[in-house]
Amino acid sequence: MSSEGDAKNKGAEATDKQGARDTAEVFVISVAAEMSGLHAQTLRTYDRIGLVTPRRTSGGGRRYTWRDVDRLREISRLSQEDGVNLAGIKEIIRLTRENDRLRAELAAERASNRELRERIAEGSSVPPGRELVHVPRSSAVVMWEPRRLRNRRRSVR
What we know:
Blueprint: H1 4-18, E1 26-27, H2 29-36, H3 40-49, E2 55-56, E3 62-65, H4 66-80, H5 86-122, H6 147-156
Antiparallel strand pairs: 1-3, 2-3
Helix pairs in contact: 2-3, 2-4
Coiled coil: 92-119
Pfam families: MerR_1
Protein name: MerR family transcriptional regulator/heat shock protein HspR
């Protein structure tokens, strides 16, 4: 796979067969550079500053997945077309990952909530530790004391 056309055809085949690009397929740095339209030295720089983290061989060679190539293309687009500097791109990537993580967490919580509501509606018991409890609001202030101090005060009285 030495040309961009061969790489694109290979990617199209993987997409057609599986519905998503194969992340097990990896490319050496020269192929990934050609596919992303960047110079190999640029890929090394992006790896060094943490924008893209390719897999490594036992000898230390970089191996880029389709996901890495897509990210390189996005970095190039942000930099060239939108004028975002590398620090900004790094922050965009971090925030995108965090957003994805939070969306997945929200979806899981919504599914759990839906399951609990269905159980309650059916009249079945709620698992221990998952009860819905009303907590009244209070403006009282409670001073916390370590247990040993409380015990000393009780013994003095």
